[in-house]
Amino acid sequence: MRPHSSFGGRHELGQNFLHSHSTLHTIANLTRATTGPILEIGPGAGAVTAQLYKLGRPLTLVELDETRIRHLENSYPRAQVRHADALRSRFDQAVIVGSLPFHLTTPILRRLLRARKWQNAILLTQWEVARKRAGVGGSTMMTAQWAPWFDFRLIERVPAHAFTPKPSVDGGILTIDRLTTSLVPDRHRSDYQQFVRAVFTGRGRGMKGILTTMSLTNRAALHSTMDANAVRGDTLPRDLEPDQWAGLYSALGTSAKTSTAKHPSAAQTQAAGKQSEKTREKGTTMRNNKSHRNPHIPTATGEIPTSAEKPVITGEIPIVGAEQAAKKLEAPIPGVDPEAKAKSHDKGHLQAERGFMPQHAKKSQPQPRWNLPRR
Description:
The chain is α/β, with parallel strands linked by helices. Among the domains are: 10-178, Vaccinia Virus protein VP39 (Rossmann fold); 186-261, Helicase, Ruva Protein, domain 3. It has 15 helices and nine strands. The protein has helices at residues 10-13, 21-32, 47-53, 69-75, 105-114, 127-134, 141-146, 189-200, 206-214, 219-228, 242-253, 256-262, 266-282, 322-329, 347-353, and strands spanning 17-18, 38-41, 59-63, 80-83, 95-99, 120-126, 150-158, 163-164, 171-178. It has a seven-stranded mixed beta sheet with strand order 4-3-2-5-6-9-7. The chain has a two-stranded antiparallel sheet with strand order 1-8. Helix 4 (69-75) links the parallel strand 3 and strand 4. Helix 2 runs parallel beside helix 3, helix 8 (189-200) packs across helix 11 (242-253) and helix 10 (219-228) runs antiparallel to helix 11. The longest helix is centred in the C-terminal third of the chain and has 17 residues, at 266-282.
């Protein structure tokens, strides 16, 4: 019986070892088409490692299971073996090859895409993950965020019986190649990915509705930009190609911040217009006029004069709507007699002030005879 790893068992380490000869030859041929040193993630028992070792190129093995380190060092003496976690190790070689643990595929992919030294990656992942990253049936947000810098391709499907022990899902071979000329400059990577995220999570039907809701530019400029990049109004974000994403970002995303600061959007202008119309209808009062200051309060002393019964007029032109505001302040409270000189604090008046109606009261129940007081 093999010794147990301190990092967990087979399930925790995601150890499903590949034994299909056709799949091993496919990975070897894809790696042979690349150039430069190779780094393998999770060599395990060494089935893929044996094919890579025959290429005669510098080879680095990253293995977390310490019980397999000595076997790898003895079997492949020319290879450099690292006892490290793929989520923390450096991807510092030109070619990355590996059969990724199915439950850690996405975290490893995110870390791999952020590394800058490698050029080609041949990965064996879960089938659904490989399909999504390659954009089969529509790209995901993660694929669209990295498409201007990488080329994702789905090679073939690997059935579950090609692994030992057999997993519950099939696998897929995914290749990722770094583009020699990126569609978006590297310095705009963060802004571009935020733009893609805003589109994928935005409201609206189709690209036209989503981009209109985002209020990046006026309607005429938006239509011309979509026509220039061959984007239909009913196209979904998942159906866009990398060059279409790059074209939309170059025309809309880069100027979104400056245009918003210098020229307010149509929605902002419309909201401001509605607010001004509402102010004109109500008139200038203490509540909707924030720039109003009481002229009778001296700036230096801070003395507060006694309040006047009528609104204070500061100039020859009267304040529009001041009388209406005063009438609103003097409006009677529902349920209270305005001619009553003294208020009573009994239950009836309190209920009237709170809007209590007689029909809200519970019907009185007759008391049982045994509960009546003695005579």
